[in-house]
Amino acid sequence: MSYTPTTHNASYEAISAKNHSISAAGKVVLITGAGSGIGDAASFSFAKAGAKALILLGRRVNLLEKVAKSIREESFTTETACYAVDVCDEKVVKSTMNQAVSKFGRIDIVIHAAGALPPLGPLATVPLDNLWRAFEVNIKGFLTLAQAMLAITTSEQEGPSQPVLVVLNTAGSIMPPLPGMGGYVASKMSTLKLAEYVAAENKDKLRVISVHPGLIQTPMAAELEKAGLKFPYDDISLPADFLVWVASQEAAFLNGKFVFANWDVKELKASAEKIEGGADLSLMLKGL
């Protein structure tokens, strides 16, 4: 399943964090789920891309501090700040963002890599309390971040200065049912549609893009493997660097859209006018 003829399984020149045309120089970047997996890898990519500061959010501050220490050891000039945060806690998220703005002056980019995988199994028997907690993390967590970001974005901004919110999603949101995955996919599909609405309602204040990161070997993927779901994995460099590109001005035409990190960005840009002005890469009902 690909929108572009060319696909990728690892980073490449056009999305490389070292590509000056998508530089994050001077940008203040907030990343949720930064203690492991894609959030961890994306932190390094934004540091390589020259970000001024990284605000690392996650549940376990010891993991965040380990990421920050590794970034410092790589001699990147990027400043770091770590906060233990539950993305569903509105007061804490807003307070953390306000602290970050006080420290760094603003937040330019938010990468929402945090997510929850509910128990896998038939919806007839899955524990509803556990499933609903995943809905909270995946849906309320996104809206909490979006509202907090909009609260600190008080004026209309366009072009390179417009703040960007990127939320990770799953290809399952647009694919036929995969038994056992109903709770997770339904929560992510809801988030996908909400992201479209946040983008539509705030197009002069905030750019919002949903990204399927590829199939990456993360702790969440390990849980899927335990349930017998195995996939051919992509290299984690793919989403890590793609997130730098999609947060750059080159990807401004993708506001409100859903894209796969595997898709070739040069070919995406060649279809920019069609994508920006039409229904491509939006959640729709096939056949209508």
UniProtKB/TrEMBL annotation:
Oxidoreductase among keywords: yes
UniProt entry keywords in alphabetical sequence: Oxidoreductase
Entries under InterPro entries matching the protein: KR_dom, NAD(P)-bd_dom_sf, SDR_fam
Listed GO MF terms: oxidoreductase activity
Any matching Pfam family: adh_short
Sequence intervals crossing the membrane: none
Annotated ranges, domain Ketoreductase: 27-219
Family: Belongs to the short-chain dehydrogenases/reductases (SDR) family.
Protein name: Nadp(+)-dependent dehydrogenase
Naturally occurring in which organism (per UniProt): Colletotrichum kahawae (Coffee berry disease fungus)
Taxonomic placement: Eukaryota, Fungi, Dikarya, Ascomycota, Pezizomycotina
